[in-house]
Each structure stands twice: as C-alpha cells, then as structure tokens.
Recover the amino acids of this structure.
C-alpha cells in the first residue's frame, strides 16, 4: 500500500471542477484509491463523495492507494495535486 | 407601479416585458414495477441521453461563455456517472421495485440535501447541480423536451430559481435580465449572468400575476420596477444609453494610449476617495491614481486613525494598483470639514483658515503618523506624497525635514520602504507666483483648480448668488496654469491637474499645448478624456 499526505493550497479548495478532473485521473488506475480528511474518508473515484468532504484550502488530506498499479497511481495522483490543487 | 427589492448579482439596466419561466411539471409519481431489469435499462438509457444533452450544452456554453463556465456541464456528466449516485438509484429500483423517475428524484433529493447541509457556501450552492441533473434524467424518462422560453421578443426572465442548464439553453438574444426568487451569489446563474453581461437579481419576491407586464431591472441598486411610471422609465432609458456609450468606449479605448493625433502623450490618472474606489480605477483603465484623498480615514472615525489602520489602507491600494503610480494627498481637513476629535474652532472664513498642511505643521504628531504609514506602505507599490494648501518655500522645507526624520526612524527600526516622490498641490495664487522657487524643492506639482479658481477670482463657490460671474475658464486661471507648467519644467518637475478642470474636455487641447504632463479625473471620466485626447491635433 502507498500513502501520502498533501495540504491543499488552491484558494477555492477542491471545488467541482478540480474534483471532476481528480476523479477522472483516479479512474485511470485499477487500484483502490481513498482520500481521507480527519475521520472522514471517500473513494477518490466517486465525485459526489469527494465533493462531500468539502476539502478547503489549508486542510491536510491523506491519500491511500492499494492495488497492482499502486506505484504508478501514487505518482500520478501526487503530481495531479501538486499541479492543480 | 410596484418596486421590489432584490440582491444584485450583476449590475446593468434592463427594460422590457416580464416573462415568468415555468419549469416542466415536476411531479414525479411513485409506482411499483414488475420488470426491474427493464426499469434498470430504462434508467440507463435515460442517463445516456441526459449525458448527450449535457455534451451539447457544454459545446454551446463553450462558445458562449468560455471554458471555465462551460466546465460545469462536464462535471454534470460526471455526476451522472458517479457510482454512489447510480448505485443508490439502481438499489431503489431493484430492492424496492419502484419506478426509475421516483428512484432518481429521491436520490437527487438526498444528495442535494447533503450539499445543502455543508458549511461552505460554495458547496451549498452545488445542491442545485445535483437537482439539475436529476431533473434532466426525469424529463428524459417522462419523454419531455427541454422546457424553455417561448417568447419572440427579448424579455426579462423571472423564475423561482434557474438551473445552469436552463440558463444556458435559453436563446441569449431573447434574455434582457434574470430575476429569481431563490439562488445565491455563488450559483451558476449568477456566474453566467456576470459572464454574459446581463443584469441579474436574486432573492426577489415577485408575484405570478406579473407575467407579461412592463418592468425595469436596476442591477446597480438591486431594484425591480414593475409597471414603472413614465418618468421613471425615461430616466432609466437615459441611464441605459449612458451604459451603452460607456461599453462602447471601453471596447474602443481600453488599453489604448493617451496620445494625440500628432503624437503627444499625456498621463491620465484617477481621483479617488477611498480604498473601495480602486475597482472603478482599474475597470476604467486609468494609468494610476493622481489624487488619493486621505480624508476618509479621518472623517469616518471617532478618534485619530492609527498608523496601522492608515498603513493597511495605503498598502491595499498600492498592491491593487500593482506598481502603477498612486499619489496620496496628506490630510486636507479644515474648519469646513468638521471632525470632532480635531477640536477645531469655528471660523468665519474657513476656506482661508486653519486647514490642511497648516494643521499638519502646527500638530506634527498627527502629520508624522500619516507620513510613517504612507512611507511604510511605499514598500508595496509605487507611492507618491502630495501636500495641500502650500503657500511658501519654508513650508515645503519644514515638511521635507519631517519626512527625513520619519525615514531615519524607519531606518533605525529596520523597516523597509520604497522610493517616494514628493509633490505639492498648487491651489493658492501664492504658490503659482513662486512656482519657480517651489519647483526646486519638489518632484511634481498638481494643480487643484477648484480652490485656485476660488482664491484667484475671490468667489466663494458655496454662494449661489455668485454663480453667474464664476467663470472656470477665466483667463487669469488659464494663465496661472501655463505659468506653473513652464516654471515646473525648468526644474524638471512634472505638472498635472487634479481639479475639476482636468475633466473639462473643452480645455484638454489647450492643456496639452501648454505642455501639461498629467490629468487626474474621476474614474468615470477617464475614457471620455482619453477619447478627446486621441481626437485632437495640437498643431492645429
């Protein structure tokens, strides 16, 4: 399993547009990808659940990835966060 | 006539007939089904059709309002494919053996409630998105076409609330304005209205019997006039024309140089009275701020504003102007502008009384606080300081001594500051007559024509009996301006005008012929003056 933390820098947080792009990115991989904010966790491939976490600027999230392509997935998802959020 | 209040989400004026937008019948029946597999397939097909419709809307929005605003329809497509959403619907159909319409409506409601309960205004507004996609699927299931506008002439669209898909589907050439009962400033309707440049009001409690009536939407003041009286309509027609002229000027003149036909350039800056005016300065494309009146900091307070309060205001303006010149005029309060905590005496002749720089030099502690705040803020942009009501070289030297002290203190405390140009207002005949001497002391002159005219002609502008002899184009004043420009230029001191004459376009040509370097006018006059500058030939 791969795990990394990230602090959101985008002023608007994970709003609809980047959430959509993020889910699209996650869907490219077979691995299970979870995003957690505090106690709450959501499947990164499910748009409404990700939006439902209401992740804002300055908040720390944890991404957990498990599956055959977890290495590639972790790299791609982390790059996505750094470039877009 | 009836006048309703609303909250404006985009300014502008619209005049026309009301068309109340009615959505398709939203009643969804709940009934048991036998063949769950067939019902699941029916849902699947409806979902695909809905996604195709959204794809078309995306293309339409892309062309009309740009990618950032169009993206919402792509997000809508993804929401329709969201597994939580789809599984919840499938689950209702399969386990409860209920019809697809009902399953979609129930699921849509529960996700919409989830968003509505979130503590973030942006996410709250997303509950409308989930409702919107669910209604779309339900319409497809019910075999309905998109509801819409049926009118042939452009109308003011009035609705309970408008979903993004509804606003985009409308034929824009038929929409004059949006007025809704619900909705938020974060809603897509609000965002789209802003992008499409049409006035929009939300939170407006209209009556259904207003359909077809004449109305005016005043997006500047958040007012909705139903069946307006004739004189009100006339007034708004004029305002609307002014808007159209302004838009035309913006299109033609924004980003253009202030240059005459024969190639003479001049700086065109704006006069402002507070931090809130910076928006208008930028919108009207001013090259800088030629007069930032600092009185607002003092007039709106019960005690002297602290250095920190002033610093924050100046810094904010410096930063928002992003390197463009900002000229701050130090305190210009006098016995005519009474502020209790200054404890000024009542005077018989306040225009010639204890005011402006005279107060500052007599009570240097007030002055130093302001200077420190300005000089500190100069680190965050390009700030200049301008002193009002100067009559002698000695005053300027005293001021410069105080500025030196302030800078020395800042140096000792290790507080950074930028280059600060210093200039004076030329608004007394005395300053005009010794402008050759004053020019050696400062970097620039800014002529305050209102006071200069009043002092030169010995006419109190507050006295209406004298209006007939008050001549703002008096030869004496024009000669003074010419003299100041010539004396300034001999000492490399640039010269501008920040009084009312600066926006008097009948004099623009003469000013440029005199060699004036800058005009500073109210933000709303910037483009009008630019238009004049670009139309004149100073050699003729």
């Amino acid at each position: 399993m791969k795990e990394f933390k990230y602090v959101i820098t985008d002023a608007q947080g994970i709003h609809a547009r980047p959430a959509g792009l993020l889910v699209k990115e996650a869907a490219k991989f077979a691995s299970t990808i979870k995003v957690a904010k505090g106690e709450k966790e959501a499947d990164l491939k499910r748009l409404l659940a990700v939006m439902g976490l209401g992740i804002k600027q300055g908040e720390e999230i944890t991404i957990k990835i498990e599956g055959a392509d977890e290495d590639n997935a972790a790299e791609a998802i982390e790059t996505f966060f750094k470039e877009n959020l | 006539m009836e006048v309703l209040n609303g909250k404006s989400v985009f300014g502008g004026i619209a005049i026309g007939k009301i068309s109340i937008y009615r959505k398709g019948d939203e009643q969804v029946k709940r009934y048991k089904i036998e063949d769950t597999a067939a019902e699941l397939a029916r849902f699947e097909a409806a979902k695909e059709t809905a996604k195709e419709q959204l794809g078309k809307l995306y293309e339409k929005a892309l062309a009309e309002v740009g990618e950032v605003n169009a993206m919402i329809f792509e997000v809508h497509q993804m929401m329709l494919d969201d597994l939580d959403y789809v599984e919840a619907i499938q689950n209702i159909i399969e386990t409860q053996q209920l019809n697809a319409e009902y399953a979609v409506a129930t699921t849509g409601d529960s996700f919409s409630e989830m968003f509505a309960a979130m503590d973030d205004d942006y996410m709250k507004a997303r509950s409308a998105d989930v409702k919107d996609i669910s209604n779309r699927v339900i319409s497809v299931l019910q075999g309905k076409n998109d509801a819409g506008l049926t009118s042939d002439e452009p109308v003011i669209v009035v609705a309970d609330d408008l979903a993004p898909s509804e606003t985009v589907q409308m034929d824009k050439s038929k929409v004059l304005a949006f007025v809704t009962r619900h909705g938020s400033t974060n809603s897509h309707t609000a965002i789209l209205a802003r992008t499409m440049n049409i006035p929009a009001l939300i939170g407006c409690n209209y009556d259904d019997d207003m359909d077809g009536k004449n109305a005016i939407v005043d997006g500047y003041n958040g007012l909705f006039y139903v069946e307006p009286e004739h004189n009100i309509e006339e007034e708004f027609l004029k305002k609307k024309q002014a808007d159209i002229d302004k838009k035309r000027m913006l299109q033609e003149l924004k980003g253009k140089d202030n240059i005459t036909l024969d190639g003479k350039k001049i700086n065109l800056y704006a006069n402002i009275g507070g931090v809130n005016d910076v928006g208008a300065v930028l919108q009207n494309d001013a090259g800088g701020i030629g007069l930032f009146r600092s009185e607002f900091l003092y007039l709106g307070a019960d005690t002297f504003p602290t250095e920190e309060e002033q610093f924050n205001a100046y810094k904010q303006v410096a930063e928002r102007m992003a390197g463009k010149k900002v000229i701050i005029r130090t305190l210009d309060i006098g016995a005519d502008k009474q502020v209790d905590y200054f404890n000024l005496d009542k005077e018989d002749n306040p225009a010639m009384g204890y005011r402006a720089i005279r107060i500052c030099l007599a009570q240097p502690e007030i002055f130093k606080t302001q200077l420190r705040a300005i000089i500190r803020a100069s680190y965050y942009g390009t700030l200049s300081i301008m002193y009002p009501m100067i009559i002698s070289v000695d005053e300027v030297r005293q001021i410069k001594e105080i500025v030196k002290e302030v800078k020395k203190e800042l140096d000792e405390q290790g507080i950074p500051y930028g280059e600060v140009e210093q200039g004076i207002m030329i608004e007394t005949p005395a300053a005009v007559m010794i402008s050759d001497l004053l020019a050696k002391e400062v970097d620039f002159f800014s002529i305050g024509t209102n006071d200069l005219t009043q002092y030169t002609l010995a006419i109190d502008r507050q006295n209406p009996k004298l209006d007939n002899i008050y001549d703002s184009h008096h030869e004496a004043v024009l000669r003074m301006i010419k003299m100041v420009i010539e004396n300034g230029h001999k000492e490399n001191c640039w010269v501008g005008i920040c009084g009312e004459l600066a926006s008097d376009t009948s004099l623009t040509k003469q000013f440029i012929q005199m060699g004036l370097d800058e005009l500073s006018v109210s933000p709303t006059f910037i483009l009008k003056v630019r238009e004049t500058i670009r139309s004149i030939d100073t050699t003729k």
Q: What stands out?
A: Chain B has a mean pLDDT of 89. The first helix of chain B runs from residue 36 to 65. The longest strand of chain B covers residues 13-20. DSSP finds 21 helices and 16 strands in chain B.
